[in-house]
Amino acid sequence: MRLLFLYIFLLISNLTFAQFGKTNISHYEDFENKKLIVVLSDDDKHIKINEDLKYVIKEYWKFTAFEFVTEDKEDKYKTEKNAIFFKIEYTKPSNKQYNSSPSFINVYTYALRLYKYQLSKKGKVKKRILLVSNRFESLDLKHVTDTGNILVKNKNSLSAKAQLVQAIKGIISFCDYVFENKKSKDISFGKYLKEISKERKHVISKKKLLVIKNKLKNSINTEIKLKEVYPYDFEFVDAETISKAILNNDNNSVRIKFIRTNQSFYILMMNVADEKVLYGRRATGLNQVRLGPKILKELIP
After folding, report:
1. What distance in Å separates the CA atoms of residue 46 and residue 52, rounded to the nearest whole number?
2. What residues does each domain of the chain span?
3. pLDDT reading at 150 higher than 50
4. Is the separation of the CB atoms in 4 and 174 below 8 Å?
5. What is Dmax (Cα atoms) for the chain?
6. Which sign, positive or negative, has the C-alpha torsion 278, 281, 286, 292?
7. pTM of the complete model
């Protein structure tokens, strides 16, 4: 079995690789010998999201063995040395974060989190260690329809299943990056973006950019304006089209993804098929949740 990890991501969907904070490589030692405990919701309303989570783990998780358990059974596994955990959790920012920007995206969010527990010498739980987290764009697990469908709060956001698929793919993509490069030092999110942008941004020119108009600043939100700064193939689409591309593993397209860490917003260009980050940088200016011409020009050699 190949060397493994560590989601990820994120986006945005928010590759908050912890949430894209600093990655402590020592937390991923002997990763290939771990067992993934996927914690499912006990809420009867979440049967559908549990089914989708099972699907994406079975379909995409290739690193370790895995087992599905309900929330009430998680405590049983916390003291197992070789256990790591996946769980969808609700996150809420502090009042300071909430008040810092009226345009804050993902103010109340759900995230797919990969974590483990640090044990004492006596085998008791000392603390939980977050390995990587990938926030969803717009899931609302507190409001579920009678048919069990998860609501998506923003019409310009991906479908619930597509958000879950991109979340797991983003985490796996970051795992691949860590192990393929055999990193021995801790990785900051900024350094990660700098390295992969240099290595991968040339790939963007060979693919079609699928973009929702409101993800762009007004200066480039028409075909004529966008062609002036972006010479490669692109198409204005809706969220449903991007959702289908993600679920169909479309390897001919890229998409825009916005994420935030605790302090900053980042803009990423993602390969749709596997959620690999092809280019990323910190957002600047007043409107940090829309893509402007400056960043697009940086993609041109």
Report:
1. 10
2. 14-186, 191-298
3. yes
4. no
5. 66
6. negative
7. 0.78
